[in-house]
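Methods — Computational structure assignment.
A single polypeptide chain was analysed. Its primary sequence is given first, followed by the predicted tertiary structure written as structure tokens.
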Amino acid sequence: MHANVAAKEPTGAAQLVTRIYAKLLLTGFALVPAYLIAYLYFFQDPSLKFENHAFHELAIAAATLEGVFVTYVCWRCYRLSGEPLLRWLTLGFLGFSLVYALHGAFTGMAHHNIWLFLLYGPASRL
């Protein structure tokens, strides 16, 4: 009796199929944004415009709250470990949250002063 049969380890063929499946799954998930872009390119009318400031403000509020939560978690981890990288992560997430909150605050002014709105959106993502 072979050792791999006694230990009930998967055979080489099963491991190969599993590895191929995992790579195909990873590739499929990596290409999801390309599928969405292709869908919009081929099936949507470019002249259509969707503008909903309330949804945009809600999405920014959710992202800001998530950023504040991650900031808090990083800060707590930094307090426990004292690792400098966590201090910089805390400051980075805090900066993102503050700047992105301003982007959300200026959403309603997008038609009147587009530069205030545009200034804080991309800046928070740097």
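Note: Residues 53-81 form the longest helix (29 residues).
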